[in-house]
Amino acid sequence: MGQFHRQHxxxxxxxxxxARDRLLxxxxxxxxxxxxxxxxxxxxxxxxxxxxxxxxxxxxxDLSDSTTVTRTCLSELFAPGKDSLVVYGFMYAxxxxxxxxxxxxxxxxxxxxxxxxxxxxLAVVAKAPIGQIRDWARGRGWHNLRLLSSxxxxxxxxxxxxxxxxEQLPIVNVFQKAEDGICHRYASELFFLPSEPGQNPRHIDxxxxxxNLLDLTPEGRGTDWYxxxxxx
Length: 232
What we know:
By secondary structure, this protein is an alpha/beta fold. It has helices at residues 14-42, 100-116, 130-140, 155-158, 209-214; strands spanning 55-59, 69-73, 84-89, 121-126, 147-149, 172-178, 181-187.
Protein backbone atom coordinates (compact mmCIF):
# COMPACT_ATOMS: atom_id res chain seq x y z
CA MET A 1 0.00 0.00 0.00
CA GLY A 2 1.06 3.54 -0.56
CA GLN A 3 2.61 5.77 2.04
CA PHE A 4 -0.05 8.48 1.69
CA HIS A 5 -3.33 6.70 0.98
CA ARG A 6 -4.87 3.25 0.49
CA GLN A 7 -5.75 3.58 -3.20
CA HIS A 8 -3.97 1.59 -5.92
CA UNK A 9 -4.22 1.10 -9.66
CA UNK A 10 -4.61 -2.15 -11.66
CA UNK A 11 -1.40 -4.16 -12.08
CA UNK A 12 0.86 -1.51 -10.62
CA UNK A 13 4.23 -2.68 -9.34
CA UNK A 14 5.89 -1.89 -6.05
CA UNK A 15 8.48 0.17 -7.93
CA UNK A 16 5.72 2.21 -9.57
CA UNK A 17 3.98 2.86 -6.25
CA UNK A 18 7.24 3.84 -4.56
CA ALA A 19 8.03 6.30 -7.39
CA ARG A 20 4.46 7.60 -7.31
CA ASP A 21 4.73 8.22 -3.59
CA ARG A 22 7.91 10.22 -4.09
CA LEU A 23 6.12 12.28 -6.71
CA LEU A 24 3.07 12.60 -4.46
CA UNK A 25 5.24 14.04 -1.71
CA UNK A 26 6.58 16.61 -4.17
CA UNK A 27 3.06 17.41 -5.39
CA UNK A 28 1.91 17.92 -1.82
CA UNK A 29 4.83 20.26 -1.18
CA UNK A 30 4.00 22.15 -4.37
CA UNK A 31 0.37 22.53 -3.29
CA UNK A 32 1.56 24.12 -0.05
CA UNK A 33 4.03 26.35 -1.90
CA UNK A 34 1.42 27.51 -4.42
CA UNK A 35 -0.78 28.71 -1.56
CA UNK A 36 2.17 30.38 0.16
CA UNK A 37 2.91 32.34 -3.02
CA UNK A 38 -0.77 33.21 -3.46
CA UNK A 39 -0.88 34.46 0.14
CA UNK A 40 2.20 36.62 -0.45
CA UNK A 41 0.55 38.00 -3.58
CA UNK A 42 -2.64 38.83 -1.68
CA UNK A 43 -0.64 40.52 1.08
CA UNK A 44 1.31 42.81 -1.23
CA UNK A 45 1.09 46.39 -0.01
CA UNK A 46 -0.78 48.79 -2.21
CA UNK A 47 1.02 49.93 -5.30
CA UNK A 48 0.79 53.42 -6.71
CA UNK A 49 -2.46 55.17 -7.48
CA UNK A 50 -3.63 54.83 -11.07
CA UNK A 51 -1.58 57.21 -13.21
CA UNK A 52 -4.70 58.42 -15.01
CA UNK A 53 -8.22 57.24 -15.70
CA UNK A 54 -7.39 55.76 -19.09
CA UNK A 55 -10.01 56.02 -21.81
CA UNK A 56 -10.45 52.93 -23.99
CA UNK A 57 -12.60 52.22 -27.01
CA UNK A 58 -15.17 49.46 -26.64
CA UNK A 59 -17.79 47.89 -28.90
CA UNK A 60 -21.34 46.79 -28.20
CA UNK A 61 -22.21 43.74 -26.14
CA ASP A 62 -23.19 41.83 -29.28
CA LEU A 63 -20.06 40.92 -31.25
CA SER A 64 -22.07 41.00 -34.49
CA ASP A 65 -22.50 44.76 -33.95
CA SER A 66 -19.68 46.22 -36.05
CA THR A 67 -20.73 49.87 -35.80
CA THR A 68 -21.16 50.76 -32.11
CA VAL A 69 -18.04 52.25 -30.50
CA THR A 70 -18.08 53.80 -27.04
CA ARG A 71 -15.44 55.38 -24.85
CA THR A 72 -14.93 53.57 -21.54
CA CYS A 73 -12.74 54.77 -18.68
CA LEU A 74 -10.77 52.27 -16.62
CA SER A 75 -12.75 53.36 -13.55
CA GLU A 76 -15.93 52.21 -15.32
CA LEU A 77 -14.68 48.63 -15.54
CA PHE A 78 -15.50 48.01 -11.87
CA ALA A 79 -18.92 46.43 -11.41
CA PRO A 80 -20.86 47.33 -8.23
CA GLY A 81 -19.66 45.27 -5.26
CA LYS A 82 -16.47 44.08 -7.01
CA ASP A 83 -13.42 46.15 -6.10
CA SER A 84 -10.71 44.29 -8.01
CA LEU A 85 -9.97 44.36 -11.74
CA VAL A 86 -7.75 41.98 -13.72
CA VAL A 87 -6.50 43.32 -17.06
CA TYR A 88 -4.75 41.10 -19.61
CA GLY A 89 -2.50 42.73 -22.19
CA PHE A 90 -3.35 41.10 -25.53
CA MET A 91 -0.39 41.36 -27.93
CA TYR A 92 -2.12 42.84 -30.97
CA ALA A 93 -0.43 45.88 -32.46
CA UNK A 94 -2.32 48.20 -34.82
CA UNK A 95 -0.02 47.28 -37.72
CA UNK A 96 0.52 43.62 -36.85
CA UNK A 97 -1.21 40.30 -36.38
CA UNK A 98 -2.74 39.03 -33.13
CA UNK A 99 -0.34 36.90 -31.10
CA UNK A 100 -1.07 33.15 -31.53
CA UNK A 101 -0.05 32.43 -27.92
CA UNK A 102 -2.32 35.18 -26.58
CA UNK A 103 -5.13 33.92 -28.79
CA UNK A 104 -4.79 30.39 -27.40
CA UNK A 105 -4.75 31.75 -23.85
CA UNK A 106 -7.85 33.86 -24.51
CA UNK A 107 -9.65 30.89 -26.07
CA UNK A 108 -9.61 29.32 -22.61
CA UNK A 109 -10.17 32.53 -20.68
CA UNK A 110 -13.32 33.27 -22.68
CA UNK A 111 -14.87 30.03 -21.45
CA UNK A 112 -14.10 30.89 -17.85
CA UNK A 113 -15.03 34.57 -18.00
CA UNK A 114 -18.62 34.05 -16.84
CA UNK A 115 -17.36 32.23 -13.76
CA UNK A 116 -14.64 34.80 -13.08
CA UNK A 117 -17.26 37.55 -13.23
CA UNK A 118 -18.93 36.12 -10.13
CA UNK A 119 -15.88 37.12 -8.08
CA UNK A 120 -14.00 39.90 -9.85
CA UNK A 121 -13.80 42.16 -12.90
CA LEU A 122 -11.91 41.10 -16.02
CA ALA A 123 -10.89 43.00 -19.16
CA VAL A 124 -8.67 42.35 -22.18
CA VAL A 125 -6.79 45.32 -23.61
CA ALA A 126 -5.00 45.52 -26.97
CA LYS A 127 -3.40 48.37 -28.90
CA ALA A 128 -5.12 47.48 -32.19
CA PRO A 129 -8.29 49.36 -33.21
CA ILE A 130 -11.43 48.05 -31.58
CA GLY A 131 -12.86 46.94 -34.95
CA GLN A 132 -9.86 44.70 -35.62
CA ILE A 133 -9.99 43.24 -32.11
CA ARG A 134 -13.68 42.40 -32.44
CA ASP A 135 -13.24 40.94 -35.92
CA TRP A 136 -10.62 38.58 -34.47
CA ALA A 137 -12.87 37.77 -31.50
CA ARG A 138 -15.73 36.84 -33.82
CA GLY A 139 -13.50 34.46 -35.71
CA ARG A 140 -12.29 32.83 -32.49
CA GLY A 141 -15.78 32.55 -31.04
CA TRP A 142 -15.10 34.74 -28.01
CA HIS A 143 -18.40 35.92 -26.55
CA ASN A 144 -17.66 36.47 -22.86
CA LEU A 145 -14.57 38.68 -22.79
CA ARG A 146 -14.69 42.44 -22.28
CA LEU A 147 -12.49 43.66 -25.12
CA LEU A 148 -10.97 47.14 -25.17
CA SER A 149 -8.66 49.10 -27.45
CA SER A 150 -5.92 51.15 -25.80
CA UNK A 151 -4.85 52.72 -29.10
CA UNK A 152 -5.77 56.20 -27.92
CA UNK A 153 -4.08 56.16 -24.50
CA UNK A 154 -0.80 55.29 -22.81
CA UNK A 155 -2.08 52.40 -20.66
CA UNK A 156 0.13 49.78 -22.35
CA UNK A 157 3.37 51.72 -22.02
CA UNK A 158 2.57 52.86 -18.48
CA UNK A 159 1.72 49.39 -17.15
CA UNK A 160 4.43 47.21 -18.71
CA UNK A 161 2.36 45.93 -21.65
CA UNK A 162 4.51 47.73 -24.23
CA UNK A 163 8.24 48.37 -24.65
CA UNK A 164 9.63 51.82 -25.45
CA UNK A 165 10.07 50.54 -29.02
CA UNK A 166 6.36 49.73 -29.28
CA GLU A 167 6.56 45.93 -28.89
CA GLN A 168 3.43 44.58 -27.22
CA LEU A 169 3.79 42.40 -24.10
CA PRO A 170 1.37 39.88 -22.50
CA ILE A 171 1.32 41.35 -19.00
CA VAL A 172 -1.46 40.80 -16.45
CA ASN A 173 -2.20 43.74 -14.17
CA VAL A 174 -4.48 43.83 -11.14
CA PHE A 175 -6.06 47.03 -9.85
CA GLN A 176 -8.14 47.68 -6.75
CA LYS A 177 -10.67 50.36 -5.98
CA ALA A 178 -10.08 52.12 -2.65
CA GLU A 179 -11.57 55.12 -0.87
CA ASP A 180 -8.87 57.44 -2.19
CA GLY A 181 -8.93 56.13 -5.76
CA ILE A 182 -7.81 53.16 -7.85
CA CYS A 183 -4.44 51.64 -6.99
CA HIS A 184 -2.24 49.08 -8.68
CA ARG A 185 -1.86 45.77 -6.83
CA TYR A 186 0.01 43.28 -9.03
CA ALA A 187 1.72 42.76 -12.39
CA SER A 188 3.02 39.47 -13.83
CA GLU A 189 6.62 40.67 -13.62
CA LEU A 190 8.02 37.14 -13.75
CA PHE A 191 7.93 37.81 -17.50
CA PHE A 192 10.96 40.09 -17.15
CA LEU A 193 13.17 37.62 -15.26
CA PRO A 194 15.65 35.44 -17.17
CA SER A 195 14.06 32.06 -17.85
CA GLU A 196 15.55 28.75 -16.75
CA PRO A 197 17.23 26.78 -19.56
CA GLY A 198 14.68 25.31 -21.96
CA GLN A 199 11.80 27.29 -20.47
CA ASN A 200 9.73 30.33 -21.32
CA PRO A 201 8.90 32.98 -18.68
CA ARG A 202 5.82 31.00 -17.46
CA HIS A 203 4.54 34.23 -15.90
CA ILE A 204 0.89 33.25 -16.43
CA ASP A 205 1.20 29.46 -16.23
CA UNK A 206 -1.01 29.42 -13.15
CA UNK A 207 -3.80 30.92 -15.32
CA UNK A 208 -3.33 28.65 -18.36
CA UNK A 209 -4.70 25.06 -18.32
CA UNK A 210 -2.99 24.16 -21.62
CA UNK A 211 0.54 23.88 -20.22
CA ASN A 212 -0.52 22.41 -16.91
CA LEU A 213 -2.36 19.59 -18.67
CA LEU A 214 0.57 18.85 -20.99
CA ASP A 215 2.84 18.68 -17.95
CA LEU A 216 0.82 15.61 -16.83
CA THR A 217 1.92 13.59 -19.86
CA PRO A 218 5.18 11.62 -20.29
CA GLU A 219 6.02 13.83 -23.28
CA GLY A 220 5.44 17.04 -21.32
CA ARG A 221 5.00 20.44 -22.93
CA GLY A 222 8.23 20.13 -24.90
CA THR A 223 10.56 22.98 -25.82
CA ASP A 224 9.67 23.69 -29.45
CA TRP A 225 5.85 23.51 -29.71
CA TYR A 226 3.60 26.53 -29.43
CA UNK A 227 -0.11 27.05 -30.10
CA UNK A 228 -1.13 28.14 -33.60
CA UNK A 229 -4.16 30.01 -34.89
CA UNK A 230 -5.59 26.73 -36.19
CA UNK A 231 -4.59 23.16 -37.07
CA UNK A 232 -5.03 21.13 -40.24
